[in-house]
Design a protein that fits this description.
By secondary structure, the protein is of the alpha+beta class. 25% of the residues lie in helices and 32% in strands. Keywords: ATP-binding, DNA-binding, Isomerase, Nucleotide-binding, Topoisomerase.
Length: 158
């Protein structure tokens, strides 16, 4: 199972009923789930970090390791959290935060969105195979009866 499907497996376990995956023409991927949204409060052990940042930068939470792995393998990753009426944002480059998690506005939505671009310095190819990903997502959906997954491919084929 690839990194997108692994991330979705984790998200399915945290109250999401809808997941959207978009393969963009620039090679990046956006994954959104309508779960509770990653926690935005400060971490108890490392109070200089939010819990969301800790989830994206360490392997401390076995149920969330896919996010840290996806972040570490990405050239860039943008995180948006919709939680408790607020929108929170943080950017990462090569697995490291470039800024603190910041409140960026309000929203009635809830959930987590990541937009990432795999690092071509790590992978020989950074292109996702639509058929393989689609198959993995169907398998995931079959394990979670109440989960709806939408896969959109915006890439053009010539």
């Amino acid at each position: 199972m690839d990194g997108v499907a692994l991330h979705l497996e984790e998200q399915a376990q945290i109250a999401a009923v809808r997941v959207e995956v978009v393969l963009h023409s620039d090679g990046s991927v956006t994954v959104f789930n309508d779960g509770r949204g990653l926690p935005v409060d400060r971490d108890g052990i490392e109070p200089h970090k939010s819990r969301a940042e800790k989830i994206l930068t360490s392997l401390y939470a076995p149920a969330m390791n896919g996010l840290a792995i996806a972040n570490a393998l990405s050239q860039q990753l943008n995180l948006k959290i919709f939680r408790d009426g607020n929108v929170w944002q943080q950017e990462y480059r090569a697995g490291n935060p470039t800024n603190e998690l910041m409140r960026a506005g309000t929203s009635s939505r809830h959930g987590t969105q990541i937009h990432f671009l795999l690092d071509p310095g790590i992978f020989s190819t950074t292109e996702f195979d639509f058929d393989s990903l689609s198959r993995d997502l169907r398998t995931l959906a079959s394990k979670h009866a109440n989960l709806t997954i939408k896969l959109t491919d915006e890439r053009t084929t010539d």
